[in-house]
Amino acid sequence: MDNVIQIGNTQRGFTRMDNELYEALIGADLSGRELRVALAVHRFTVGYNSQAARIPAATIAKLSGIARENVSRIIGELIRQRVIFRAGGSKAPIGIAPFSEWKIDLKNEDKKGQAKTTQCVKSDTSLVSFPTHIKERKDNIAPTELVAAVASTPSVEKPEAETQDTPDADQPASAKVDRIPYAKIMEIYNRVCGSHLPVCLKLNDQRRKNIKACWNLDIAGKYPFRKGEFWEAYFAQCLLDPHWIGNNDRGWKADIEFVTRPVKALKVLEAV
Q1: Do residues 62 and 19 touch, judged by C-beta distance below 8 A?
Q2: Prediction pTM value
């Protein structure tokens, strides 16, 4: 069977791709799903002779076969790595950025050239097990389609109390132990946002109060912030707001205390 189709055949459609961009995508250290989403963005932009376009996550999901909630997260990751650019807020047009500007994460090799492990690191105090490389996880939950995402989890996880959350010796015995894993949430924030927003060095009373308010945020009878994967996706979504990451006339950047305010959390979730 001849698989070579002549460009002049008007009965079939063709998307032209710059050779250097084509080779850059081949050599890029992207995960399989990141590459599929990048190619889908290229298809709906350059494929229609446009540099950028408003592409619904559902459209990319249908073409790529990736769940819609994961498409939104992957788009955020590609924007962070500068493979995709977005001119504006979360619903602004997107397109493929010049490959000379790409800042792709080093996934397959560490500084010594040794392969990274993909085994989960388990902790008695963590919400969930987090792999070294989370790109290929099929069950990551993102804020997109919030009600549908949390509805699939009938029960609420109750992780064990962390050492720093143990009541002081002089605290009344009847006081309830705060079982919210503040340190783990701070760790997720620093890992996801640390390269773009101020690193959180210590949790003070106000920051703990904000995290606790998010933890107890009731959305249609569900508590999405009681899932570790949700915190991961939420912080990634926060990075999509250009104003929050410093693209403003003051150079101001959001921090963990700002993004964990319940009113800001609702703003992010409602904008997805």
Answers
A1: no
A2: 0.42
Transcribe 250-263 into DSSP letters: T-----HHHHTSHH
* CATH 1.10.10.10 boundaries in the chain: 19-101
pLDDT tens digits for the chain (272 residues)?
455 555 555 555 667 777 888 888 888 888 888 899 989 888 888 877 788 888 888 889 888 899 888 888 898 889 889 898 887 776 788 888 888 888 888 765 544 445 444 444 444 444 444 343 434 444 444 444 443 444 443 434 444 444 344 434 444 444 455 789 999 999 999 999 998 999 999 999 999 999 999 999 998 888 889 887 889 899 999 999 999 999 988 889 999 999 999 999 988 888 76
Burial of 245: CB neighbours in 10 Å, binned 0-12, 13-18, 19+: middle
Could you tell me the end-to-end alpha-carbon distance of the chain, in angstroms, rounded to an integer? Answer: 45
Look up the CATH architecture of domain 19-101. Answer: Orthogonal Bundle (1.10)
